């Protein structure tokens, strides 16, 4: 495997729309970023994070050291929760406006970085709210500069143009996608993942797996999204078991983080469809549900539905997890069960019925998937027609193990 010939301590620039500093020790690039902020009249920054990650990872010590060295003033918002809400976005935006923030720094996984992206937009639009942004009431074309320090290997949000937030009173969890919310700089340092708990290690990696399953099979799929998908699955199949058995394995963390980043680039190019569109209602109704767990519970059923139309692609992409597939449409049941068995072997043993959903919830979930703002765009990209009966069948199949 070529991975053995890669020096994981060599910090390189993963160039996409974002300049992402990648590798062990990349957090030290905060020195260069702080110098950039100073030289470009961005000496006031709002930092967006959750109550834990920015401290336990060690990222905060490095950030504050270089902020102090370069005279960068900051205000801290550390109330972001998993499945962040528009209320949190509005609260952080108010803090940032009062402070006069010229840039936004997100530290954490998808939730803090997505919140940072949202705040960066609203800082440029007086009188607009998080709800208006996520319900599509206006289309932003500008945002304050965004810096993302990533602490999980799953979302890819540090290198893409997507963000997600929940509108709790409507049980909506829409997504946005705008060019203006690509981070200017991102940091992907595997050292920051060493404190990632077992279940977050598992769930975030499965998030990346879902990103490429969808990006490789949408109507917008392309050779680039499929190529990145194949490599993502290979890396996750190889290194996720290693990271789960030894959380301090820095090499495993490096390659899972790389898989997450290229999965983010894959769906930035190929978009998403069923799994994310159907998971968002789950975690909108149950905000404590981990996004990656929701995706894991849906993935086998989604693959079963779409496999006949994209069998040749998925057989090749999933070879490391479900070997021996020929790409025949009749293998739909086999690949679905193979993926479910792999998930169970990794430690995801829950299905929807285990977390409180039953047949009585299916119609409501189906309606939310079809009516939540932005999810219709994802469903329109599915390789088969996203009819109500198909969506219902995916939810029903996901209630229990196949």
From TrEMBL:
Task: Please identify the protein, giving its name as recorded.
Answer: Alcohol dehydrogenase, class IV
Q: Per UniProt, which keywords does this protein have?
A: Oxidoreductase
What region holds the Alcohol dehydrogenase iron-type/glycerol dehydrogenase GldA domain? 19-190
What domain of life does the UniProt record list for this protein's source? Bacteria
What Gene3D superfamilies does its record include? 3.40.50.1970, Dehydroquinate synthase-like - alpha domain
Keyword Iron in annotation: no
Question: Does the UniProt entry include the keyword Oxidoreductase?
Answer: yes
Molecular function as annotated in GO: alcohol dehydrogenase (NADP+) activity; butanol dehydrogenase (NAD+) activity; metal ion binding; methylglyoxal reductase (NADPH) (acetol producing) activity
Q: Which GO terms describe its cellular component?
A: cytosol
UniProt cross-references to Pfam families, sorted A to Z = ADH_Fe_C (PF25137), Fe-ADH (PF00465)
> Where does the Fe-containing alcohol dehydrogenase-like C-terminal domain start and stop, copy by copy?
201-398
Q: Which SUPFAM superfamilies match?
A: Dehydroquinate synthase-like
């Amino acid at each position: 495997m070529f991975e053995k010939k890669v020096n994981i301590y060599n910090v390189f620039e993963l160039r996409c729309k974002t300049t992402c500093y990648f590798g062990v020790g990349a957090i030290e690039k905060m020195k260069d970023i702080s110098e950039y902020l100073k030289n470009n009249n961005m000496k006031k920054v709002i930092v967006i994070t959750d109550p834990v990650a920015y401290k336990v990872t060690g990222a905060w010590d490095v950030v504050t050291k270089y902020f102090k060295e370069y005279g960068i003033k900051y205000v801290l918002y550390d109330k972001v929760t998993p499945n962040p809400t528009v209320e949190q976005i509005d609260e952080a935006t108010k803090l940032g406006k009062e402070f006069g923030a010229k840039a936004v720094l997100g530290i954490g996984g998808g939730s803090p970085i997505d919140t940072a992206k949202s705040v960066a937009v609203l800082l440029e639009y007086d009188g607009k709210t998080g709800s208006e942004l996520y319900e599509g009431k206006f289309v932003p074309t500008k945002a304050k500069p965004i810096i993302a320090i990533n602490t999980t290997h799953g979302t890819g949000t540090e290198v893409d143009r997507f963000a997600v937030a929940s509108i709790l009173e409507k049980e909506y969890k829409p997504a946005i996608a705008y060019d203006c919310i690509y981070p200017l700089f991102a940091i992907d340092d595997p050292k920051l993942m060493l404190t990632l708990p077992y279940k977050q290690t598992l769930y975030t990696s499965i998030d990346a797996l879902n990103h490429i399953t969808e990006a490789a099979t949408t109507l917008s799929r392309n050779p680039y999204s499929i190529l990145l998908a194949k490599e993502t699955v290979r890396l996750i199949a190889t290194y996720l078991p290693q990271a789960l058995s030894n959380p301090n394995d820095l090499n495993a963390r490096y390659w899972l983080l790389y898989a997450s980043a290229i999965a983010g680039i894959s769906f930035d190019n190929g978009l998403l469809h069923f799994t994310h569109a159907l998971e968002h209602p789950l975690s909108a109704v149950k905000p404590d549900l981990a996004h990656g767990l929701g995706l894991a519970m849906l993935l086998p059923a989604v693959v079963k539905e779409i496999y006949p139309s994209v069998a040749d692609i998925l057989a090749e992409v999933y070879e490391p997890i479900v070997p021996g597939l020929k790409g025949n449409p009749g293998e739909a049941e086999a690949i679905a069960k193979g993926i479910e068995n792999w998930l169970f072997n990794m430690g995801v043993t829950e299905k929807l019925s285990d977390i409180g959903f039953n047949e009585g919830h299916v119609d409501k979930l189906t309606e939310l998937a079809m009516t939540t703002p932005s999810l219709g765009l994802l469903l329109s990209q599915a390789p088969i027609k996203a009819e109500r009966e198909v969506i219902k069948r995916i939810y029903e199949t996901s209630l229990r193990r196949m």
